[in-house]
Structure formats: structure tokens, C-alpha cells
Amino acid sequence: MPDMLPVPLTRPRVQGHWPESAARVCNVNLRQILPEDARRATVRLTAPTSYCSGVLIAADLGAHSAKATAFVLTCAHFFRGLPANPVPAITVTGPGFRRTVSAVRRIRGTDIAVAKLDSPAPARALPPVTRRGAVWMQRIVTYGYGGRRTTASEKPGRALITLPLSLSRNLSTLVAPAGLVLNRPGAIKGDSGGPIFGAGEVLATQSLVLDPAGVQTPLATTSLLGSHRGALRRAIGAL
Q1: DSSP readout, 104-144?
Q2: Measured on CA atoms in the order 189, 195, 198, 204, is the torsion positive or negative?
Q3: Hey, which of 65, 156, 163, 206 has its CA 20 to 30 A from 5?
Q4: pLDDT tens digits for 84-127?
Q5: What is the CB neighbour count within 10 angstroms for residue 52?
Q6: Cα angle 114-120-124, degrees, rounded to a multiple of 5
Q7: Confidence bin at 82 (pLDDT 50/70/90)
Q8: For residue range 188-234, what is the model confidence (pLDDT) as tens digits?
Q9: Closest by Cα among 191, 162, 201, 195 to 179
Q10: pTM of this prediction?
């Protein structure tokens, strides 16, 4: 996971309340998602020399109580330097299944990608992808396989502010728009691409960590999803 170099900030924008209907469909309330559903939707992508996290999503980006899917939302920087066609050997593992990535589409201008599996993962609860930005001080939970975990870990926290964009320190990873979050424990390498849940929706995917001089901090930058729903739909349609 690249470290981050935030650019000048914008003022946080509060965008109302999250819809209760989406929370009900995903068996969550407005404060906390059920950890078991979140963990079962969170997956690990493994390449020959690296790995990251991701989340299973439906083709319509909506919530489903039990549905098989072949689509994984993750980070684009994981695929940097890898050929798009054919995709090299990348395995995707989650509770009860193991698949291979057959194709990838990266979302232009941010650190988001959609991967297609060679066959659908078994049916399970799938969370909806949000239509909105993050709300100031909203409760969130990040899930990921950072630290070479065999199961996804849970990192509760708060959404802080929205950035127009954020860059990694080496300027190779761009996130736009970006959300600054605080988690305890903080996100670590390997959590990249993992989902950030809030009020029963996937608000963002993990992208950049803030670790000046190698010192871990609880701050991280996430790739906000709401403004990219159209691009996500087109990417899924092209896979």
C-alpha cells in the first residue's frame, strides 16, 4: 500500500443521512455492520509477489441478502505494471472459496479497479456501493487482510474530511476524490483495496497509508466511490 501525500484540503461536506433501507437489506443498523457479513464479503487478491484486499459486489452495485457474484472491487495500484490482457496469475480467496482473476478494468483518475473472477463466488450477503460521499465524523469500519492475515480484520474508526485528490509520496498513485479516515488500529500494507463500510454501504476502498519515516499512524486515505458509480457500471459491463 503506498504511503500518502495529501494535497490542500477542502472543507468537509455533510451530505445528509444514510438510507435506512440499504442498512436493513444488509442486516445492519445505522451505526455498525454485522462483522460476519462484512468479513464474508471481504476477499484477498494474491499475485506472485504481492497481495491486497477487496470486496465482492453485485453487477448492479446494489444490496443483496444472498447472491453469487463474479465481481470484486479493489485498488488499481495493485495491478500497476501487470499486463491487462492476459491477466497474470492472481488468485482471489474468501471464506469458502478460491477463484482466479480473469479480467480487470481500472477506473480512470483514481485508485479503484474492478476484477472479474473466472467463476462466481458462492452466494452470500453483498453490500451496496454508496451513491454519496462520506459524512463528517461518520462511524466507519475498514476490513482487510493486511499483516498477512488469513481472515479479514476489522478496524473501526471515523470518516474525517474529503480531499479533492491525494497522491502517494512517489506520485504514482492518484486518488480523487479521497476521504481521510482515522482507524484504530490503523490500516496497514495489505489492507489496500479493502472496503470501508458505513451505515450498511461500501463508502470507499482503502488506498494510501500515512507512515512518515516508517512510523505507523492511524490516518489513511480512501478512494471514495459515490462519484464513480457510473464508471463502475461501465467497467462491469465491459468485463
Answers
A1: EEEETTTTEEEEEEEEEEEEEEEPPBPSS-PPTT-EEEEEE
A2: positive
A3: 156
A4: 666 778 999 999 999 999 999 999 999 999 999 999 999 999 99
A5: 28
A6: 95
A7: confident
A8: 989 999 999 998 899 999 999 888 777 888 999 999 999 999 999 99
A9: 162
A10: 0.84
Higher per-residue confidence, 100 vs 29: 100
Q: Which residues pair with 57 in a beta bridge?
A: 71
Q: Please, are residues 187 and 146 in contact by the beta-carbon 8 Å criterion?
A: yes
**Residue 70, pLDDT score:** 98
Does residue 10 surpass a pLDDT of 90? no
**Cell numbers representing residue 206 in the block:** 482503502
Cell of 112: 479503484
Radius of gyration of the chain (CA): 16
Q: How many helices (H) and strands (E) does the chain have?
A: 3, 15
Nearest to 115 by CA among 87, 142, 80, 94: 87
CB contact set of 45 (below 8 Å; sequence gap of 6+) = 51, 52, 53, 54, 72, 74, 78, 90, 91, 92, 101, 115, 193
Q: Do residues 200 and 26 lie in contact, with contact meaning Cβ atoms separated by under 8 Å?
A: yes
For residue 143, the one-letter residue type is: Y
Residue 81 gets which letter from DSSP?
Answer: T
